[in-house]
Here is the input.
Amino acid sequence: MTVTQFVIASAVLFSIGVYGVLVRRSAVMVLMSVELILNSVNINLVAFGALHDNIAGEVFALFVITVAAAEVGVGLALVLLIFRNRKNINIHEVDLMKG
Amino acid sequence: MTTLNWGSISSMLVLFGTAILVVTVASLIKSSKKDLLVQVMTALGGLGGLAAVIIYWHRVSSDGAKLSFADTVRIDHLALFIIGVISSIVFLSALTLKSFFAREKLFRAVTTEIYVLILLSATGGAIMASANDLIVLFMGLEVLSLAAYILAASNIRKAQSQESGMKYFVIGAFASGFFLYGIALIYGATGSTKLAQISQKLVSGAFVDDGFLLGGIALFLVGLLFKVSAVPFHVWTPDVYEGAPSPFVAFMSSAVKVAGFVALIRVLGGALIESAADWQPIIYAVSIASMAVGTLAALVQTNVKRILAYSSIAHAGYILIGIQAATKDGFAASLWYLAIYAMLAFASFSIVAAREGAISGNSINDPNHIDNYRGLASKQPFLAVIFAILLLAQAGVPPTSGFYAKFSVISAVVDARSYPLAIVAMIIAVAAAFIYIRLLIVMFFTPADSSLLGGATMSKTAFSKTTSKTMSPITQLDASENSDATFDKWKKLGANKLNLAVLTLAAAFTIAMGVYPAPLLELAQSAAQSLV
Amino acid sequence: METAVFIVAAIITVLSAFGVILAKNPVHSVLMLMATLFAIAVLFVAQDAHFLAAVQIIVYAGAIVVLFLFVVMLLGVDLAENLRVEPIGGQRPLAIGATVATAVLTILLIIVAASDSSKPESGDLAGITQETGNTGVANLGRVIFTDYVWAFEIIAALLTIGVIGAVLLTRRAKQQEVEEEVVEKEGGQL
Here is the structure.
């Protein structure tokens, strides 16, 4: 197997993730698209690790998963925060800043 | 065998250790002095980081750069220079925050967490500055930015702050994705994540191919240019800065940006210097665009925070000029600009934070509207004079540090024979002066209760926005009188003395660096020398 | 055989990734994300990264996706969809253009790359491989705790931030504090 096929799969997944971030407006959906981007990176890292016969790629992928977990934790905390305040505070106060 | 040289990372350990200590102590103590204790500890943490930097600066001068943790950490003058800047910002932030907490009651319950996050974010910056491996660089970036996202959203009752935090988070995570994909491609091309090995591979030509490498450099740049808010990737900056609590904007616009730039300098100037021809054109275009767009957009803003945000984008353009030169002098000029800029941005946003306090009772207007600075010179002459010094420095007026900073990046790029870039930079510098002159006129030559100039300078949309919210000129007048009363009350708390001291220090630094720039410039030069 | 596994897993990955970003209902998106992650785990196995595949399923699918699902359910499906952020202003066409451009560029670069990277083991590249040659969990552990021990230590800072951030952001202000704040604001205005 060549590394190319994995890298192409990863590039496609990355593009899907970028599209998701740019197009979806919901915060939760944007977070999920970011997860897709991070996963595409992981595919790449593992493929390159195999290409170079070097385990650094796998180690890097593990770190990426850890970072993703921490990021999701903070991101969802933010989502909950906004959600709670929208329920309690006037809805038209959100989206105060434009441009 | 891996060598664990804990001593060499002492500055990071001090910052991180202080953070952990602050959490622990704060959770054990119930007394009313807790806030003061936590503040003092944080300030000491910043000073401790600075002390560790000074100690190691001499050791590195005599023994050369220290590598440890299997060569993933490189403590050299570049790392120490940047850690020094970041530690100083932590120290100054800790001093200014108290008055902010005294004013914003809702923060009182989370003061500890705020200090801890600032310390941890600074740790992330220090990790990035000393990273000698792409994995470590990425982890440092995440530590730095994750803490900054939370700080931006930390005014948890205010919709603006939440929205700002969310926006910052989404953009930041997105940028991290690009950064990471770029790193993965660079790893794929060279087979190593270690900066030293990458540069070796590039020198010897023993890398897989150009395709991965070029794609990797491009995506890596996109990711980091998002973080330092250079122009095509700057859209988030004014919104996030406007919504986030001002004292944390002061931190974000100084320490966080400094760390972003040091990552650029480390990787471009160190590992990828061999393929400079590949990335120089990108930086060239981005720096011109940043200067132009930042300056033009700042001219039409009516919110002081947004003006400063756009002007920070323009400054990012100037810092990139030095990187574009890709010479030791260029990197030295950028580093020197970075140190100057960090102080200017920190102090300017701190003034915004202080001035915001004067109007905290006035919900009629946007507290950061340029009109609220009208006649500041007669109301708070001291603050106005300091702000004037900082603004003149940002404009690059000769007796201040800003002049030398701009001068040195432009002369570096002239030495590198990019004449058009130098000329564009100089023209834009002249145009940029109007941003700051406009603020100066509002502060010094406009009476507090007239709308003469304000009406003329306000853009149409912003004008209608404010007027629609304003009930009548009379109430506005009353409110502004009241707001100064509120400010007096706030002043009586005695909390802002430290603030004024810090701001005076910043102004003194700004002038001192303009009059006698040699010492800091030498530090920046030896920092640039330590690039591989 | 290996190629067949790759093709099937890659197709599932891409299709379910499309599902993630196109599904109307956030719950469907989360489930699609789960499918994507499983298919990626298969891709990892296809490259002998067994440990990573296990982590992918346990941590990603097991913890992260469940967290997503939990939040979506907590907010209510409609609200989760309505909770808007606009990262880069609402520029749908621009987004589509940018994405297509990114995709085309990346794939082009990779095809260019592939044309000369088909022989990775030959010549100059032999020098690249580090002493950490073979794969396997033992080796992975060894490398994490020797070569990358500093990155491993940094995770401590990251997790501390995660905990403190979650505490700070989801903290409910006591009612009394909120009232005090309101009184103070009004007092300033009167």
